[in-house]
Each structure stands twice: as structure tokens, then as C-alpha cells.
Amino acid sequence: MATPNLFILGAGKCGTTSLYDLLGGHPDIMVSNPKEPSFFCSHFQVVKNPVDYFRLFNSPKRYRVDSSHVYFSNPETSPLLRDLFPDAKFLVMLRHPKARAHSLYRHMRRAMHEDGRPLELAERFHEALLLEAERFRSLEFFANCRHYFWNFMYLRSSIYDEQLDRYFRLYPRENFLVMSLAEFRREPDRVKRTVAEFLNIDVAGFGPEAPFSNAAPPHDSYDAASDAVMEQYFGNLTARVDRLLGRSLDWSL
């Protein structure tokens, strides 16, 4: 039975759906349906049965893709993937952590996973940021939250260097291609060439267009109070990630 050999790790709300759609159009690549089976995340599995999971990748194509973004934030996943798929390759799409945290919160609000408090949207986001430490420590919240736990950790799930390091300790660096959503949006043709080179496939297979999928509706930015919380929490995160990667990503908001 065929197995996945290429993973889009995430991060969530960083353009992974666009990357999934780009890969899915290439003749040498098949992408799983559903997009995010999340099988290797014991407390948030979309596909639970192992036979059903591996059947998703029954394809003769060169690359078979699992795009479950929960594998990036969930601490238990990386050693499972290493043990089962030691030769796998990984694509990682990142975004400025402030923009990513706010986008994730708005996604959780739209999907009705966050509590509906009678406050303005900006005030609710600020409240959620302040609640995060309490939620993180609460076993009850972990057991009973309405969705994937780490999707409520708007700050903690955006600490990219810790998440990358979990994988870098288990796999060779050359198995990873890390890019940013800003780079994909500003220079889609260059990103397509970089992905094709990383996978050793023909860039022409991606076609002339770059899909930008699952974009959120227009919205007001977060308020100054939320910005102050995120500024204090994230600190020099983007610089730390750049040092870890050995190159500077485009962190445009």
C-alpha cells in the first residue's frame, strides 16, 4: 500500500490551502482528500481508521501529500512521522505571527468555536489573548474545547521556531522547504520554481497561475491593546526563525 511521502506541515492560516491547491494541479503529485486527515494527532483525528488513512494515498504518483496543519503545532506528531516515514519531505508556509494569530482567531469565530461574548470583535480578540494562559493550564479546557486545542492557542501556536526545531532534530534540514505567505503572494513564479527544484519535478506542471485559496473576508485590523500583547509575547520571534533557517523570510504583514 502506498504511503504519504510529502507533508504540508502548516502553519494554519498561513496559506496552506493555496499550497495544497498548487500541488494538487501537478501531474506528479496527488493530494489527499480530505485535505487534512490529521490521523497522527490522537486528540483531533479527522480520519481515525488506519486502513482508511492509508487508502487516501493509493496512487502511483511520485508524491503523495498529507496537508494536516495540526502536525506542526501538535507536539506528539513529529516522532511518529519520523518513525513511519523517515524519508519524507516537508513544505512549511509561515506568516507574520501577529497576522497569523489574528487570522486564526477570526477563523475560529466564523466557525463558531469561540464563545460569543457581547463585545466588539477587537475587544474579543484581546480577551482571547489574555485568556490563553488560563486555557493552556486547564485540563478541563483541553478535554472539552470545541475544536483542536492548539487552534485556541493564538500566541503559543505561532511560536514557529520551537515547532520547526522539533522536526529539525529528527530529520535532515534538506528535507524541508520553508517559505512565507508574503513570498508566495509577491513572487508566486519564483516560489513555484523553488518548490519544483526542491521536489525535482517540472515547474511547468504547476501551470501559469498560482492559486490563492481560502482567503478570509476583508476585516479591520487588531487594536492597539492586542498589538501590545502580541509584541510582548512574540518579541524577536521572526529574527529567531530567520537564524534557525539561515536566511531571512519575507515577514510582510
Blueprint of the fold:
Elements: E1 6-10, H1 16-24, E2 29-31, H2 50-55, E3 63-66, H3 70-73, H4 77-84, E4 89-94, H5 97-110, H6 121-137, H7 139-144, H8 160-168, E5 176-180, H9 181-186, H10 188-199, H11 224-234, H12 237-245
Parallel strand pairs: 1-3, 1-4, 2-3, 4-5
- Could you tell me the radius of gyration in angstroms? 18 Å
Supply the CATH superfamily name: P-loop containing nucleotide triphosphate hydrolases
Order of helices and strands: EHEHEHHEHHHHEHHHH
How many separate structural domains?
1
How are the strands of the biggest sheet laid out side by side? 2-3-1-4-5
Largest sheet: 5 strands, parallel
CATH topology: Rossmann fold
Helicity range? 40-55%
The percent range for strand residues is: 5-15%
The tally of strands reads 5
- The N- to C-terminal Cα distance equals 42 Å
- How confident overall, as mean pLDDT? 92
Large-scale geometry: globular
Query: What top-tier CATH class fits best?
Result: Alpha Beta
Structural class: alpha/beta
CATH architecture designation: 3-Layer(aba) Sandwich
**Number of helices, where a helix is a run of at least 4 consecutive DSSP H or I residues:** 12
What ranges have pLDDT less than 50 throughout 5 or more consecutive residues? none
What can you tell me about this protein's structure?
It contains twelve helices and five strands. The protein has a single domain (6-245), classed as P-loop containing nucleotide triphosphate hydrolases (Rossmann fold). α2 (50-55) links the parallel β2 (29-31) and β3 (63-66). The protein is α/β, with parallel strands linked by helices and 253 residues long. α6 (121-137) packs parallel to α11 (224-234). It is globular and about 50 Å long. Helix content is 44%, strand content 9%. Strands 2-3-1-4-5 form a five-stranded parallel beta sheet.
